[in-house]
Amino acid sequence: MTIGSNTFKLEKRLTLTNAQAAIISINAIIVALFLFGFLFLFAGVSPFEAYWEIFSYAFANPFGIPLTISRFIFLLLCTYAFIVPYRAGLWNIGMSGQLYAGALAVYGVLFLLASAKRVRRT
């Protein structure tokens, strides 16, 4: 790819060490916190107070912990729905469709189980 007088070439990285992966992840988090800090400043909010509220609600509040866990589980399952086909050599970008299909399947199973005759034990 040529931009102006500069030519860029994409090359596949041979290997990525664990240390390099950790450094990349930590740098990505720091850059994201820094950029959102600017958004907080433009909104007239102290970034430190905003981050304190976010993390204290998510991890120290008794109401925030279950909400954080439930959102984490949802994102984890959606990630697995992408990773498993990707590792199998397939490309899957229909995560929202899978979510709707799964919700419909769960509703159908619960509807069928609720309408089935129940056996009472005496």
Describe this structure in words.
The structure is a single chain. With 122 residues, the protein is mainly α. Among the domains are: 1-43; 94-121. The protein is built from 4 helices and 2 strands, in the order E-E-H-H-H-H. Strands 1-2 form a two-stranded antiparallel ribbon. The chain is flat and about 80 Å long. The termini are far apart.
Strand order of the largest sheet: 1-2
Shape: flat
Low-confidence stretches: none
Percent range of helical residues: 55-70%
Please compute the radius of gyration using only Cα atoms: 23 Å
Q: How is the main sheet built?
A: 2 strands, antiparallel
Name the average pLDDT. Answer: 85
**Structural category:** mainly alpha
Counting DSSP E segments of at least 2 residues, the number of strands comes to 2
First and last CA, distance: 77 Å
Element-level helix/strand string? EEHHHH
* Percent range for β-strand residues: under 5%
* Separate helix tally: 4
